[in-house]
Amino acid sequence: MVTSSVVSSSAVDDIRLLGGVQVRRIGPVRRFWAAHPRLGDVALVLVVVGAFGVVGAAVVRDTVNGIVALGYYPRGGAEHWVVPSVWLAGAVLGAGALLVRRRWPVVVLAVLTAGAVASLMTGGVTGVFGLCLGMAAAAVASSRDARSTWLLVTAAAVTVSAAMWWFQQIGILEMLLWTGYYAEEPYWHLTEPPFSPERRIVSVVLLVGTLLAGVLVGFASRDRRRHAHDIEERYRAVARERDTSAALVRTAERERLAREMHDVVAHSVSVMIALCDGAAAAFDRAPDASREALGELSRTGREALADMQRVLGALDTADATPQGAGLDAVVRRFRTAGMPVSAAGLDTPLPPDTALRLAVKRIVTEALTNVLRHAPGTSAVSVVVRRTGPAVEVAVVNEAGTGPGTGSGTERGIVGMRERVALLGGHMMAGPRAGGGWQVQVTLPCPDAGSGTAVEEGPR
After folding, report:
1. Read out DSSP for 235-258?
2. Under 8 Å CB-to-CB from 376, ≥6 apart: which residues?
3. Is the dihedral of CA 244, 250, 253, 259 positive or negative?
4. Which of 47, 94, 230, 236 could form a disulfide with 132 if both were Cys (CB 3.0 to 4.6 A apart)?
C-alpha cells in the first residue's frame, strides 16, 4: 500500500501559524520584520550610516576641536578631516558588511575586525566598528555551534583590543570629556595625545561587552529558532499522521465497498444468469418451472438492488440491518438455478451480531457461487451451519463438476471470505478435497452462542 507523505496545504498553513506566531510568540512589529528580513537589513544600514555614521562623524570632529583646544592636537592639523573621514568611511564599510552577515557571518566578522584595526591605525578611532562587530557576533552565534562561536569572537576581541591599546587616540571617554571644549589658546602643546591605560580599559571593556551581548543574542535567537523548528516538525508529523490515517480509512472503505460490490454483483449476476438459462431451457417442456425460475430471477434482482443501495449508503442503517441470516433464500435460489444443494442447520439460531450474521450469509453465498461457476454439473453440494460451544461453524462441500467452468474469476471471492473471517477473529480453510471437489470450512467465534446440533435437510 502506498501512502502519500505530502502534508496538505491547510495543514501547512496551520504549521506556519503555530510555528511562527504562537511558538515564537512574536508581536505584530517583530512579525513584520521577521517576514521581511531584507527590508530589516536595509533599515539597519540606514540607522548605522545615518545615526552612528554621520552623527558620530560630526561628534568626533567636535571632539578633535576640543583636543586642539587642550593642546593635544596642533591647530590646522590633518586630524580635523582625517578622523571624521575615517569614522564615516568605517560606518559605510560596516553597514555594507552587515547586509551579508546572514549569508557569510564568519567572513563579515573577519572583515569588520580588519576594518576596526585599520580605522585605529589610520585615525585612532574605532568608530562604529564596535557596534557592527556586536551584530556580526550575533550572526555567528545564531548560525554556528558554541565552540566555533567563542573561538571566533574571542579572536576578534583580542585583535581589536590589542589595536585599541596601541593605536586608539579617541575613545568613548575622550568623546564624553572633550567634545564641545573650546579655548583661545591651548594649555600646552604635545606631539601626540598622552597614553591613558584607564581610558583604554574602558574602551576594551565596552568592546568586550558589546561582543558578549551579541553572542548571547545570537544564542537566544538560535535556540528560539530550533525550538520553533522542533514544534513545527511535531505539527508536521501530526499532520502527516492525520493525512496517512485518512488515506488508510479511505483505502479500507474502498476495499470494503469493492468486497461488498463483488459479493452483490458477482453472486447475484451468476445466479441470475443460471436462472435465465434454466428458464429458457424449461420454457416449452416445463412452463411452471420456467415461471418459478423467472420469479426467483426477479427476487434475486430486487435483493441485489437493495444490497447495492445498502452498500452505497442510500438506505438508513435500520433498513440495512438484516432481519435474519437469509440462508433459506440463498439455498433456495441456487436450487432454483439447478444446483443439487443439501442443507443442514439453516434454522440454527445465530446471535444478534449483525456482522457475524452477514458474514455467514456472504460466506455461504460466495462458496455456492464458486460452485456454480467452477463446478457446473456437480452431483452434490452440502451446506452445514451449526453452533458448537462458543463458535459458529460453516461448511460448504461440493463434488467435482462435470463441465468446464464459466471463467477464471477475479480471485476476490476467497480473499473477501478470508478478510471477513479475520475481522471477526475466526479462521478459514478452503481448498480441494482428496477425493475430488472443493470444500470451505469456516469457524467464527461466538462467545454468547449456546451449543446446538445440526439438523439434516434434504433437497427441497
Report:
1. HHHHHHHHHHHHHHHHHHHHHHHH
2. 401, 402, 403, 404, 405, 406
3. negative
4. 94
Grid cell listed for 180:
564641545
Per the listing, cell 558554541 goes with 146
| Cα angle 49, 155, 149; round to 5 | 85
**348 Cβ neighbours under 8 A, 6+ residues apart:** 385, 386, 387, 452, 454, 455
User: 340 with 376: CB under 8 angstroms?
Assistant: no
How many CB atoms within 10 Å of residue 445? 13
Q: Please list the helix, strand and coil fractions of the chain in percent, rounded to the nearest 5, in that order.
A: 65, 10, 30
Three-state secondary structure call for residue 321: coil
Q: Report, in angstroms and rounded to the nearest whole number, the Rg of the chain calculated over CA atoms.
A: 46
Per-residue pLDDT tens digits for 34-82: 666 677 777 777 777 777 778 888 888 877 777 777 767 767 777 777 8
Share of the chain above pLDDT 70, in %: 70
Phi/psi-derived region of residue 124, left when phi > 0, alpha when psi is between -120 and 50, beta in every other case? left
Question: What amino acid is encoded at 99 in this protein?
Answer: L
Q: What angle do CA 308, 310, 315 make, to 5 degrees?
A: 125
- pTM of the model as a whole: 0.49
